[in-house]
Design brief:
The protein is built from 15 helices and 8 strands. With about 375 residues, the protein is α/β, with parallel strands linked by helices.
Length: about 375
């Protein structure tokens, strides 16, 4: 862990490693022997669904749930989309009646062609073949949400790039209206590095009220910041990203306040590694007399990060779950690259993890002495 987070604390090393991995993928070079015992084993639960059982048990021993995240990015073919849907259906089946698997999760781009998500958002007319392909994608999304509903398993729809997100949002709203009538099954994700997301959240709440369904909300700061800024600059439109991290923090915390104030029609999953935001949510729950064991509020962190937050929250009786990615080593490389980039891009994230690791190493040395 010390070596890994030291490496991720170096922007130069991360960028060099990213270029090497992209190069290795194109040439089909063997990188498994390097990735498997290092970054893969730290951030992923295994290569197939059965591999993750050991991680589920380890997390459960710390009163922490597992969110099985199939992190293979599809080839963009109908066959790959169907295969991804079928794998996520298996995660839902595994989560059914399992006390330590509180959520399933999927990315819409694993089920629907990216080009069509973007074209629909742009309001462009689809050809007959494109309309049929988009409908097949929408049916896959519905298959997952319907199966989650019948299995009584909550399901998270991940957020993606802004030029696809409106289409993804509209699919999520349709699923919520269909399956969130009695309680929240389907959750949409809001990335608060985008400056408009608080207004979108407030609008979505009002629409849920008028539509007589419950709103499922997962709050995150975001995962595509550098990519968003580069594209906005390249194409000459205003960046959707906040100018400063402080603005993102303020919006995220405002969203926590809004959700806890409207918990009668909202279920919240707070996906944050920020200590201040986690502490604020504890304070808000106390203020609004929301019990730690209330099923409408979950804390979530990524596997391999912020165990100090996850396990202490769980020990105090709050609902906590870890996102645990899995998939063949060679096929989760894009996820692993994003994980390294995000740790480097988020000011101080790797440094915080590294500081905690150093303290633990020192504590163990003293204990042995």
């Amino acid at each position: 862990m010390y070596a890994l987070f030291t490496a991720m604390n170096s922007t130069t090393l991360v960028k060099t490693g990213e270029r090497f991995l992209h190069f290795a993928q194109r040439l089909h070079l063997p990188v498994r022997f390097v990735l498997k015992p290092t970054i893969f084993d730290h951030f992923c639960g295994g290569e197939c669904l059965s591999d993750v059982d050991k991680t589920i048990r380890e997390l459960a021993a710390n009163n922490t749930g597992t969110i099985l995240d199939y992190s293979v990015e599809g080839a963009g073919t109908e066959q790959s989309f169907d295969a991804t849907r079928d794998e996520i259906l298996r995660t839902i089946g595994k989560a059914k009646d399992h006390p330590h698997l509180p959520f399933a999760v999927f990315k819409t781009t694993g089920l629907v062609p990216v080009s069509l998500l973007e074209k629909v958002q742009q309001g462009k007319e689809l050809s007959a073949d494109e309309r049929a392909a988009f409908e097949r994608g929408r049916d896959r999304v519905n298959d997952l949400c319907r199966h989650a509903h019948s299995s009584n398993v909550r399901i998270l729809i991940d957020a993606e790039e802004s030029w696809l997100q409106d289409t993804i949002d509209n699919l999520a709203y349709a699923m919520m209206e269909r399956y969130n009538q009695q309680k929240v099954i389907v959750y949409n994700t809001y990335q608060f590095y985008r400056h408009d997301r608080l207004q979108v959240l407030q609008r979505d709440y009002e629409n849920a009220l008028s539509g007589n369904y419950h709103l499922g909300v997962k709050l995150v700061r975001g995962a595509y910041m550098e990519k968003e800024r580069e594209r906005a600059q390249e194409k000459g439109y205003p960046s959707p990203i906040n100018s400063t991290k402080a603005e993102t923090d303020q919006l995220f915390d405002a969203a926590l306040r809004f959700c806890t104030e409207h918990l009668d029609h909202i279920a919240l999953c707070s996906g944050s590694h920020n200590e201040q935001s986690n502490y604020l949510l504890l304070q808000l729950m106390e203020k609004h007399k929301i019990a730690p064991a209330d099923e409408r509020v979950y804390f979530a962190q990524l596997y391999g990060m912020s165990d100090n937050l996850s396990f202490n929250l769980a020990r105090a009786g709050y609902h906590v779950a870890k996102y645990v990615p899995y998939g063949p080593v060679e096929k989760v490389i894009p996820y692993l690259i994003r994980r390294a980039e995000e740790n480097t891009a988020i000011a101080g994230q790797s440094s915080r993890e590294l500081t905690l690791i150093k303290k633990e190493i020192e504590r163990r040395k003293q204990a042995k002495g």
